[in-house]
Design a protein that fits this description.
Blueprint lengths: L6 H11 L7 E5 L5 H10 L12 E5 L10 E4 L7 H10 L5 E6 L9 H22 E12 L4 H11 E7 L10 E9 L5
Parallel strand pairs: 1-2, 1-4, 2-3, 4-5
Antiparallel strand pairs: 5-7, 6-7
The chain binds S-adenosylmethionine.
The site of S-adenosylmethionine has 23 residues, from helix 2.
Length: about 190
């Protein structure tokens, strides 16, 4: 039983791209109420459900409270875009490294489509800074965005530090919504 239907979007994406492997460390950004974290816990075996497989780590962050979940460590009342949160994440991750960053974050929608789009893209851009601090070489980032004029800017920023960037529209996402996901894989630190 999942806490929210959004779980089916992550299941669909992970079935296809196999992002979440047993033993992996995952950071789930905008984790409340915790459905994506439930999927991640199962797939990385962070609750140790299968003793034959290596045990992963799931850390979820949200501005809101997140009900406890076996196999996940949550940082409620934390802003993913705040550098203080990045520092806490580093401490919670084995070897201070994540294999995968997930983000289903969304701002409270104002109803003004362009404004909401810009807000969410700004949040996604900050995930690239987070990646620079915590993501393993060859790691992956999956992030939700709302399509609009700044989509290209986000795509370009992702392309500068990931070997592959794909746009995904899961079947489980409503056709009429502007919701899309970028799946960026093969992380390499940008050359400065
Ligand atoms: N993936 C979640 C699940 O499956 O249960 C649903 C996530 S919900 C669509 C979006 C979440 O992003 C909200 O809970 C919201 O509080 C959170 N959020 C928005 N801005 C955030 C920020 N700056 N830092 C952390 N979380 C944020």
């Amino acid at each position: 039983n999942f806490r929210c239907r959004s779980a089916f979007k992550l299941l669909e994406i992970d079935d296809k791209f196999k992002l979440l492997q047993p033993g992996y460390s995952v950071v789930d950004c905008g984790a409340a109420p915790g459905a994506w974290s439930q999927v991640a816990v199962q797939r990385v075996n962070s609750a140790g459900t299968d003793p034959a497989l290596s045990r992963g780590t799931v850390v979820g962050v949200d501005l809101l409270n997140i009900p406890p979940l076996d196999g996940a460590h949550f940082l409620p009342s934390h802003d993913v875009t705040d550098p203080a949160t990045h520092a806490k994440l580093l401490e919670l991750l084995p070897d201070r490294r994540a294999h995968v960053i997930l983000s289903d974050m969304a701002p409270n929608a104002s109803g003004f489509r362009e404004m909401d789009h810009e807000k969410l893209i700004t949040m996604c851009l900050s995930l690239v800074d987070l990646a620079e601090k915590i993501l393993q070489p060859r790691g992956s980032l999956l992030c939700k965005y709302w399509d609009g004029i700044l989509t290209r800017k986000l795509e370009e920023k992702l392309s500068s530090s990931f070997g592959s960037v794909r746009t995904l529209k899961p079947e489980a996402s409503r056709k009429e919504s502007a919701e899309r996901y970028f799946l960026a894989t093969m992380y390499r630190k940008p050359v400065k």
